[in-house]
Specification:
Layout (H helix, E strand, L loop, with lengths): L2 H20 L9 H19 L6 H15 L1 H6 L1 H7 L10 H20 L14 H21 L4 H10 L3 H21 L5
Length: 194
């Protein structure tokens, strides 16, 4: 079976699932070039309006810092990492730009999914893997990405979009490593999707 037939079967399966779960055919995905231009315009707007770029991991770190402060205030006060997020206590770290950005991403993603007819309680997976294994892989991958984002001092959106737009050498090296790692790993997990 050639790759065009596999892609066709995969996308037909997605359309059939969306029809079964929502009762209507899902809208097609955006052209990736238009989506890229859209993301670029959002990034430019973020710099102009907020004076900062895009990112996600900082919001989750702020949430963790607030949680640690509530559970173990002495530990949070004596730990330099948590103190850097908690500040002097005059403002809440949850009022940070990145927290509002992530809330907007969640709401916008849901609204977009509803309008496109893609909101359904379905685990997207290939026929060669169970839903439980797929969710386990997703959980493990999310933990690995979160750990990696702290090591790299930024997530893929912060490093790739914001750092790349600022021509940061470290961000470009990070994104090259992400793509090389993704292509190297895809060979080993391709049967899970086809």
């Amino acid at each position: 079976m050639n790759s065009t037939m596999l892609k066709s079967k995969f996308f037909t399966r997605i359309v059939n699932r969306s029809t079964e779960t929502t009762g209507r055919i899902a809208e097609p995905y955006w052209n990736p070039y238009y989506a890229g231009i859209g993301i670029g315009m959002v990034l430019l707007s973020a710099f102009v309006i907020a004076g900062r770029g895009l990112g996600a991991s900082g919001a989750f770190t702020a949430l963790v810092a607030v949680g640690v402060e509530k559970v173990a205030p002495h530990h949070a006060a004596t730990n330099a990492f948590y103190r850097s997020y908690l500040g002097d206590g005059t403002t809440s770290p949850l009022k940070d730009w990145l927290v509002f950005e992530i809330v907007g991403v969640l709401i916008g993603g849901y609204v977009s999914g509803v309008l496109a007819g893609r909101v359904a309680s379905v685990v997207e997976k290939g026929p060669g893997i169970s839903s439980g294994a797929r969710l386990g892989y997703a959980f493990f991958g999310g933990i690995a990405m979160g750990f990696g984002s702290k090591l790299a001092r930024g997530c893929t959106s912060g490093q790739g979009l914001t750092g790349g737009a600022l021509m940061s050498v470290g961000s470009w090296a990070f994104m090259i490593a992400v793509f090389v790692g993704g292509y190297a790993t895809a060979y080993f997990v391709r049967r899970e999707w086809l």
